[in-house]
Amino acid sequence: MIRFSSSCSSSSPLFFFGANIIIPFVLRKLKKMPRIDRISALHDDLLVNILSQVPTKDAVTTMVLSKRWALVWTMVPKLEYEDTSKEGGKNLWRLVDKSLQLHKAPVLESMHIQAERQFTDDADVGKCVSYAVDHNVREISLIIPSFILPSQPKILLLPSNFYTSKTLVNLTLSCSALVVDVPSLACFPLLQTLALLNVVFNDESSHARLLANCPALSYLHVIRYYSDNVTRFIVKVPSLKSFTYTDNHERYSAMPLVLDSPGLQHLSIFDYGDLGSIQNMPHLETAYVGHLVPQPNDKFLRSFSSVGSLHLRLMDVECFSAINFPRLMKFKLHLFKPSFSELRPGYSEYCSLEPLMLFLHNSPVLKVLTISYGVGLYYEDLPLSWNQQSSVPGCLLAHLEIFVWDKFGGRRRQERECVAYIFANSKCLKTATVLPRCSYRLEEIVEDIKSLYRRSSSSSSLSSLHSELLEEILCRVPAEAMMRSKPTCKQWNDLIKALPTNKTFIYKHLDRSSSDSSSKRFIRTSDSSVRIIDPVTKERSTSPMPAEFQESNKVHTILQCDGLVLCIRRDYSQISQPRRPHIAIWNPLLRRAKWIDPSGGLLPNSVYGMGYKTREEDGYKILRFSNSWFKVAEGDTQVEVYEFKNSSWRTLDHVKVDVRVDSKGVSVMGNMYWLTEKNGILGFDFTAETFKDVCSCPPLFFGHRRYLSCFREDRLSLLQQAKESKKIEVWISNNLADESVSFTRYFSVDKPGLPALNLHESILHPVYCFVKPRRMFALCEGDEGEGVTYTTYGILCEIDEGGLRNQTETETETERIYGRLRYPIFCGHVYVPKKMPHIDRISALHDDLLVNILSQVPTKDAVTTMVLSKRWGLVWTMVPKLEYNDTSKEGGKSLWRLVDKSLQLHKAPVLQSLRIQAERQFTDDADVGKCVSYAVDHNVRELALIIPSLILPTQPKILLLPSNFYTSKTLVNLTLSFSALVIDVPSLACFPLLQTLALLKVVFKDESSHVRLLANCPALSYLRVNRYFGDNVKTFIVKVPSLKSFTYTQNDRRASRSLVLDSPGLRHLIIFDYGDLGSIQNMPHLETAYVGHLVPQPNDKFLRSFSSVGNLYLRLMDVACFSAINFPRLMKFKLHLLKPSSSEFVPGYSEYCSLEPLIFFLHNSPILKVLTISYDVGPDFEDLPLSWNQQSSVPGCLLSHLEIFVWDKFGGRRRQERECVAYIFANSKCLKTATVLPRCSYRLEEIVEDIKSMYRVSESSQLITHSDSTILEG
């Protein structure tokens, strides 16, 4: 049993806080099940600390939990009051008054009062503040907005002790409905942070007295109110370090700022008016200045000369061009275009970028430069002017590292030239970021940006050299370093890409790299990766293996010749079937590979080799022969050679092998060499295609192992190691070109600690090379483990006559073995990276496949392939698709020259498509008729002519298309877009197969030309019309019975232009029109329709023909036009409301948009399942005025069908919106998903909570809001 004291009267705090409601609720909960109260056992100090982290309203409610909790909240040192009730501010101030009466904490750390609604007269703010000051408060925050200002604002008589508080550190005042009167004796000795947000002062000097008596003030934030009674806002605070100032007064009014705080380090100013006087700030580190006036002066910016990071938002850049910024390292410029109302006499609408260059001259140590620009009220581009400068700023030459251009349009010459200038002169540039403004023509803009010439410090002095001298320099550069140099600049990238076709350079680079011992590398391949190791520096680079090599135990053998690696892959997946080898030629440096088709024969225990007859691209050969003991014994070895020249295998019948060899050979000077079982060297001459015995090897003692390698690119080396003592001997041959070849001892070493270069026969041979005299680098393998799991690791050893000098582990792999069968994990060889000619795999393809490939690229690129070789000379002429795009800088002449020449050479019997798109001014010499005639004669199926006119001629040229065009029997798709030409359609025009037609800004000769065109297209299914303002057509008539989809755009607001539509077979319709829709006949099969009828008072005639639609999207300025129309099949509906601009208002038009017709519409849409409402804003960004009165009857679709409801751009502040949403929530019984997306983030949490609190009759509905990361169950 729970007993309550009889002292709980109506005046007690327990009664005040709703005991008669809370206590029964608690009793019911306690009766259900006992709870273990662990938190009550905590110490009072800890409980007080916990309650300090929650709003005071929640802390106070804990008093009813138990006697233990009754007084805990009264000791909370932090009081936070926020108005979250729906009854206005009265409950808030009642809570403040009662809780302060019961509060007992000796010291108050902070008091925060935030009233979200109208300030009430009974709010005794002074009493609250006095209590806080008496309790040595350190932080006070008063946020009391006023949505409806009183005619005479109440003077806020804060208590006298407030202005002499000796403990206040942080103060925030935001109350525009109150007037602050600061006495002359005000003093805040400890105040460090002050925020004056929309504060109204009693007189001109109140704010000055307040700031003057804050000796410790460091952070000041001011947002000025439009009637704050202050003309000149004066800030003279020597201790100030950070100042944020926002003035949203009427633009260009005389409300200046006077700033004299020499200790400032951080400054942020956003001002529409006069900045007045700003004194020098020698310690300024960062500054943000938004000075939005059309012609700013440079007086205020001179005090920013010592800043280190500067962000400017201006309408003109001339104001800072003559100021020196010796310490400036980061600069961001955001340009705005003024609206028409902001232009002043003498102000040029063009913003010149030349002063920006003068600014860069005056900023010698600038490292980061960011340029961005906004738009005016009508989303137009900011007009720019630019002329290249003669002298280059010093910061570009020596300091600029990061450059950013945001909102880059890409269409204007000025932008591109400015970016190109900065790229070309920034020697230290590390990062350049260019962000296009929109997605239109995004790929073209990005490619244009990439093609701009950039010059860095590493290329600035070399790029100006002659190309022959650059080639000579690159000949002396290692191939790896050469490939890394490609991103240096566009010139180097193009030069290095072209080097594979320069045979003189190839041979010279091969000779130099062959004689350079420091260019040797070890290449290691594992199951999934390739590692190239520099034996001297130990540097390693890793890249993925080709996808075909990444399966386990696939790579069996590799060997290299002039930087090309021969890879042998065997398939061990099916042991019972023959293991068919697969061969690849791979250049790891260029990451290119070519697969070689194996010959038909199967050669057991095959040995492979690679060499060349000549070092030309087609001079390389691959050798393969059988090495089985019984084949050698019988003299029946089969030898095959693959030639790159003709991409085929052939058998050498006259060549036999009479001795077994070690499968791992070495390629030297274009020939192959192997160790034989008879203690000799067997060679194969790729020129004569014969085997020969080269020489005998030094004696091999029992237990010794030996390995063959290359030495100095023209001789052999032989390494021998004793199995027990680990003694190493190295023998070197003389030049292999000599008549007699023999080995001599190079060095030997017999020291303790030498590694075993080959632990097991199952592990591949070690690889070694000599980079320094009598010093060997060897890459070998070891393993450790037991059972079926072993770890194999690579070891890099450095050995000379003194023994082992260094040993490094390079990589490890874990493998499983079964029985004694074990395959190598690693595979390696000595490798010399070289810039080899690329392997041409594509030329081996069939002509039909090549033609198909060239059909996918622009014709200009396809034509350029004719210079590759004779093989490619005529391939492009058979391409059935021709696409011409004007991408040159010479205008349209080069495009039409290309069209003319390529059509003369074109030989394809049938032309599938012809597309001509000229991005620039149409030229008179363009013989369009000739191109079209050629296409029609070759049975073209798709024709697109896109020829815009940037400067319209006074008399548009009549486009005399050939007569065969209008009677084409093969044309299926046609696109015409040229406003500078006039189309004259003859009466006999006929397109029997035409299915898709696009008329984009086409000018017709007379009113009936388009009618004749459409009337003779019996198969037309898809029509798109974008009308031109001078197309010579008043009433656009579309009468096409076969039409299934129609898109119509008309942006001319003249009432004399109309549309007549009579196509009963239509299924999909899109209309965007500012004029009269005229007559639209019934469309019984219509499935989806989008209608943007942008007139202030649309009539309902045109919408009656949409009664059978199933999915409807309307963009209108008034909803009354569709309230009386029945939509029996409509299941999805989206309504987008627009507010007309002031120029669009007509007599009798109400500015309020009533939502009641929407309910009538729902009554007439009985099976509607999806309803979406959205509205836009006008050019002044004001909300669309709405009116709403709740209806007595509920539409049937809400009661039985509506499943999805969406309200986009929900403001949340207006009663009409909330009541309309609540009405739909309360009556939609079948609702599954309700999505309400707030328009902006201001008061977002409050709006979301308000939405969530609305009653939803559908218990299974889900609510989605903009701030939700998950779906909230109803």
From TrEMBL:
Keyword Electron transport: no
Superkingdom in the source lineage: Eukaryota
Coiled-coil regions, chain positions: none
Xref: Pfam families: F-box, FBA_1, FBD, LRR_At5g56370
Annotated TM spans: 12-30
Keywords for this protein: Membrane, Transmembrane, Transmembrane helix
UniProt xrefs under InterPro entries: F-box-assoc_dom_typ1, F-box-assoc_interact_dom, F-box-like_dom_sf, F-box_AtFBL13-like, F-box_dom, FBD, FBL13/AtMIF1-like, LRR_FXL15/At3g58940/PEG3-like
All residue ranges annotated as the F-box domain in the record: 459-510
Keyword Lipoprotein part of the UniProt annotation: no
Gene3D superfamilies in the record: 1.20.1280.50
Protein name: F-box domain-containing protein
Organism encoding this protein: Brassica napus (Rape)
